[in-house]
């Protein structure tokens, strides 16, 4: 189950890449910019601004879950079935209602990936698995990475590492680069803001370091969560001293994904303004450099 295949990406690993976005994530980060990626199954997104008054195509397609009240479309998402999702796909002429998520075979995905191999070869690029959390579909991740390596394609995975180790280990031998989030090392803060276990993530990091997996750590800097000098020090210390990581990227918080929460009819619980802290970003870059890491501020 995936929700996008993005060709010609230049921000998800070296060179020109094809990014395969797999659905499913075990975290519930307040600031998540891809909330449509969390569920393992399909989601319905609805933009009322595009909805045509008087159109009943969606209620006719799924009458037990979609209706109109005073002219407005009412969607009972919990009542939608897999058959409903299939019927609703491409049902709306204005794309006010859209279905996020589709099942594709490994062969179909690899066909799309292989089309751009000349670009990978010239630029040092390749395939990147992203999400959601790609290791939530461990068999699919392993097969895609293995097939790509057999085709001579550089492989990368973007991961939050909040999965059992047994989900990660089968892919290691087919993985050239791991782009992994290190959101916090404080267990209580991590739990409060992500609904997850910092120790699970840190333990996976330790195991990957022991296997000499090439890693770039990514740190999303989130107001009131980890966008402070104490948190940055603790994260950088763990990355440098315990893991021996050589590259770290700091990603200042932005709000580009807020509208998706409206489309999914769920509340947005993080700050509504981007991070504006140039002195803190300068500190993060300098402190990471002092710890022997190459640091970048990534927009």
UniProtKB/TrEMBL annotation:
Metal-binding recorded as keyword: yes
Family assignment from sequence similarity: Belongs to the organic radical-activating enzymes family.
Cofactor: [4Fe-4S] cluster
Pfam families: Fer4_12, Radical_SAM
Signal peptide: none
Domain Radical SAM core: 11-291
InterPro entries in UniProt: Aldolase_TIM, BssD/PflA/YjjW, Organic_radical-activating, Organic_radical_activase, Radical_activat_CS, rSAM, rSAM_sf
GO terms of molecular function: 4 iron, 4 sulfur cluster binding; [formate-C-acetyltransferase]-activating enzyme activity; lyase activity; metal ion binding
CDD domains in alphabetical order: Radical_SAM
Presence of keyword Lipid metabolism: no
Protein name: Pyruvate formate-lyase activating enzyme
Enzyme nomenclature, EC number: 1.-.-.-, 1.97.1.4
